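dumping this here before i forget
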Amino acid sequence: MGDRRQAYLVAAASAVSLLGDPAVSAAWDKPSALTEFSVAGLAGHLALQLVRVRDALALDREAQEPIELIEHFSRSPWVQAGLDHESNVYVRRGGEAAAADGPAALVERSQALLDELSAILPAEPADRAIPLPWAEWSLRLDDLLLTRLVELVVHSDDLAASVGIETPALPDSVIDPVVELLARLAVHRHGATAVIRTLSRAERAPATISAF
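structure:
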């Protein structure tokens, strides 16, 4: 799968490049392809995936014994909550706030964060326990970065679709762990049989199946 820290930096660099695409600024105030997000709010949410890692690395709080990723998602209230749940409202407001200064400022801040993370992440041990600023538990650094990889990949596709451009191509080192995690989460939520049918038997596939 390659080094998770490097994969994260590759995905983050792609996201920053996408944020700077003229199509994004041209559609800034329009609705996005993601329900109840504007293009600006979605762009802000995408950029926050760099902020989240920087803030977690800098948090001055003792880390607990890190939990596994499936448990992390099971504990996270937004995963199966409706759009009006306070956790999802908070996410949308955070994206809008991040984008409030406009597209140029967002790209500038994101590039500065990417430069900062590119300097510090390679020296971090992959198994470092990281306390999460937005939760009461800790994850291993590699697992934290995988959660952000999912966000970067999924929301890059959302943003590209929102502004009518091709979804950025990313290498296998980025895509493979994202697909694997989404499959694991879908199995955890729906069961192995439902996932197997979805992938192999269209005539018996569930009407809907998703990791979240």
